[in-house]
Amino acid sequence: MMTEPETIGIFSVIRERRSVRNYTDREVTDEALGAIIAAGVQAPTALGLQPWQFVIVKDRDLMRRASDYCKPLLVEKIGAEPRPGIDEFLAALKSPEFSIFYNAPVLVLVLGARDTVSSVLDCTLCAENMMLAAWALGIGSCWIGAATLIEQNPDLLAALKVPGDHQIVAPLVFGYPASLPPKPARREPRITRVP
Length: 195
Ligand SMILES: Cc1cc2nc3c(=O)[nH]c(=O)nc-3n(C[C@H](O)[C@H](O)[C@H](O)COP(=O)(O)O)c2cc1C
Hints:
4 strands; about 35% helix; about 200 residues; alpha+beta; NADH Oxidase; 6 helices; 4-stranded antiparallel β-sheet
């Protein structure tokens, strides 16, 4: 059993977590992934339905294939709706070496049952729990929304063992950070009080 670090308070984990985009080759063990998924499934779900499944992908060739498939689609998509700050990502996508998974050692797909209306919300809560739990274990993560484009490729879906009655909600990479980016600043929340 993986022991949970008791000294790390939840507020500090929430505050310090950030998306990691540079990983070492160190393996994320099945034990650690088990602890991360166990934290994920503690999330609340509408009607308690828990409409999720998980696919753990450690096959780097398959991740490369998935990345190579998504990249040109992303260039098309992002190029069509330019936004500030996107140029760097667009340039990276055009580089053959770049992986949308940032060479992370493992990808976990959080899948949501298609027949459950609240699937996307439930799986999103699960994904956040997973990223926070990973951070508490010293493991970085990044939600790779770009990888939901895999949904358009039946061969990749089959290779990734995604069942037809489930959709990819949260593609999450995990790994030990090789370096940490600065935490992106948060806007001051707009809060209305009644009364
Ligand atoms: C739904 C969703 C999709 C995301 N997709 C990507 C992605 O495709 N690639 C990426 O590098 N980061 C992706 N991110 C990470 C965000 O860019 C990141 O959370 C945001 O910039 C705030 O930074 P922080 O997570 O370090 O606080 C995604 C985050 C969410 C919630």
